Amino acid sequence: MRLSDNQLISLFTERFGTDRVCAFDQLDQTLRQRVVQSLAPDSLQPSSMLCPETIAELSEFVTLAHEYRLRMMPCGNATKLDWGGLVSRADVVISTAKLNQVIEHCVGDLTVTVEAGTKYQDLQEILAKQGQFLAIDPPYGAKATMGGVLATGSAGSWRHRYNSVRDMCLGIEFVRADGEVVKAGGRVVKNVAGYDLMKLLTGSYGTLGLVSKVTFRLYPLPEFTQIIVIAGQAQAIASAQQEICTSVMTPMVCDLLSASAIDALGLGQGMGLVLQFSGLKLSVLEQCDRMALIAKKLNLEVQILDEAQEFWELLEILLWQDELRDSLQPMESKSVVCKFGILPSASVSFLKECEQIFAQRPFYLQIHAGSGLGVLRVEDVQNLDAIALQIAKIRSIAEASQGFLSILEAPQALKFANRTVGGANNLESVWGYRGNARDLMVKIQQQFDPRGLLSCDRL
Fold it and tell me: Which pTM value belongs to this model?
């Protein structure tokens, strides 16, 4: 028999105190809305949010929840809690936001160990004082926690030079669904001990465990940074992209942007290519000059930007619209945000096909030219059947070039209608599984969480 909300709250407050437990209806409105947006519309609301302040407390919370077979929704600061599949049921939300300590910063070894609730922006400010930085630039960076960044595998544009989140992660500690604390990896760059659980937990979306502590590798802060934006005809942009790939230039970022994004940012007309060079000032200036010559040879517009941070902030607002998202009720969302992957060589043609499919609908698109990973934001989503068909077309195009497309943010009704393989409008599923991929992931999840208590049915 399920305990009532009041009984569940009493169960945890008697053990841990009132300052560690907050009734769900007493949460901040934005946080409450984000949790509701993450749940299936036919789900009951959680009874409360549990907020441990130590890893030992986190383990005790999970152990007690496991004992009573309570379904748990792990979260950090909830910036990406509504990404991907909907959770079918959550009795309690367990937040790691108060686990926010920097455990150890080994300046000489270029590594840092932090608790999962440490905010990305706070960590970068601490590292900058020692002339170092973490080479990850996730969306919602001002609010995102490092546990959430790892759980969603959200790297950003810096991936072009420094690879993905899983490549930055050297060690991990997490709490299993039964409350057991598990450690893997270490605090050194070269570590080959045991199975690489860091890569398995990266991008697991809270389905395998609750991340409690992470060790990352770091890099020295570059001396100088400059951005060059080139814009124009698609074929010329494709030629410029090819020249970059075969040149000796080493951009930190190489992103392809849709014409709509370039226009909204006031950076010219037509498709755009954004390159950020970072390093020694002389080298950066020389590479920017070389890129400008290539662009002019191809009759492309050129703009040099010295304020890199301002540019990335404006692009993040355009693609992710954090403030607007926070102001909407779960049923009011009118946009769809997708993550996709394609062959890098197909980037320009993929963007052109998106322009044709979304000709009557506002959209913005960013592709990391080196990896072929990207973000698609579609606005003015009124007719869910129509947008589902359009997203299905884009997904089929991505899959034709050995890629994928997953829905991150979308109206709750769209996700709910397509929560399983064989969903409505040929969209199949939120994640876009192919072959036996989902079956394999479910088997892995069952090994970590046999009772199915963590992020239920999110896969």
Answer: 0.94
